[in-house]
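Lab notebook page, bench 4
Experiment: in silico fold of construct C2
Operator: M.H.
Input chain length: 286 residues
Purpose: comparison with the prior construct
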Amino acid sequence: MTTLNGPHTGHDILLLAERLRVEERLLMAAFSSAGHSARIVTPAEMSLTIGRQALAGQSVVSRLPASREGTTLALLLDDGGATVINDPSLAALLEDRARLLHWLSVNGFETLPATVGFSEALVLEAADAVGYPAVLSALDAGQPSITVQDREVAEAVIEHRAVLGKERALIVRRAVTVATLRRIVVVGDTTFAAHAAGDWPIADGTAWQPDAVTTDDLRLADDLRSKLGVGLYHADCVVGTPPTVLKVRPLTAFRTFHGAGHDVAGAIVQHILTVGLEVARVAHVS
């Protein structure tokens, strides 16, 4: 088992991931081409002592989806002196659906009306109010959203999540068709874009087709950078003027971009190395 409590040279870039996937292979190859080595470390290999500065000089790229565990890992790695991307504050915002929707709203982004019900009856009432199909989402972004087609299905899903998942508080929004969706990918100062394929209601398994970046895409990406910060994430939105932002999540999947000739892995490596140089410069000045 690998432990991160011991001393580290910081020569390797750590890719925090559940397993080795296509994206991690692409990143390791891109880091190698840039003259750096990168290796996978899984959450199951980690033992982190709070308050112990054992990771100074270590760069960690989180490849985990938004979740409470991922946020905690980012916090502890940062506490240990590592440079973590995405940083703990951004990770915490992206893993809390209600907090993120509130943040988007108060920062001037267009969002869909959302109601948070804190009991089974009130969640069902909210679903009836928005109409079907409706999307039910847990507060924790690590849990999947579910699209319900009618009241009977909604009742079953709400009861199931309350009894088995202990999820009584759910966010309710109307469903949107995939044909209206666009994904804006932010990689540091670089922007990529894709449109959704198909015509069924939005789901976490939506397929994305890489596309040319438009002026509207760049405008939204710049707005996110200026208010949310620079990092590695994607925003899914309904096309419009302005676009309606549905969610923002950590960037984990980008193999379709690679297949279409877009070097997302190279852009990630460039961003990571730039952040590392800036951290080193600040430390030197201090």
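Observations: Residues 1-10, 279-286 have pLDDT under 50 and may be disordered. The radius of gyration is 20 Å.
Next step: discuss at group meeting.
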